[in-house]
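Can anyone check this?
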Amino acid sequence: MTCRPGARSWSSWAPAGGGSVAAPVHSVNRVASRTEPLTSYKTKPPVDHACFAAGDEPHLAALFAEMRRRGTVLDATASMWTSDELRGDTAESAERAARNAELAAAVTGQAYRAGVDVCTGTDHETDPGDPFPALYGELAFLVERCGVPAADVLRSATLVGARAAGTEADMGSVEAGKLADFAVLDENPLQDIGNLRSITLTVRRGRPHARAEFDKDARR
């Protein structure tokens, strides 16, 4: 895959993908290390997991140092291998998914420790019966599996995400002159990232939307 100079993102990157960062791009997507063309996630070529398990792989260290220097955002989609679809229905596919999830956690953790800004993308589709978006799973994965503190995960989901999308002038933080988009919670997500589910009010473009009204509509 090639990138044009100034492109916003580059998908399905690899440790040898320093050229994409040098292009430069604003963000790189998916911690899916590979050395061959990727035609399907389920048939992704095998990776030497041992090279990355310790979270200090030297080629990645060089790449992450350059990403940090350039301000390139990593859209890791780290939790994608925990999905039922990629986990599959056989012991072999489940083992493969588990190993890839471990790989994603190790690589994402190394990027975070190297000072790379990580945003909170996800390839999961939210189940129609789930009252909260699949993105919440990515946030939990970053905290619980990648070792990113909850405060930094919240920043990743807001300000870093807005920067990756090129909308940081309008959203991503509560500041004068920006759009009034924020949520009100009953419990502190810094103590437990799962407390994001204690949402009671969402303000979108300055208009309040009570969670109770959403729950009432969902029950109809």
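Reply from J.R.: I decoded it. The radius of gyration is 18 Å.
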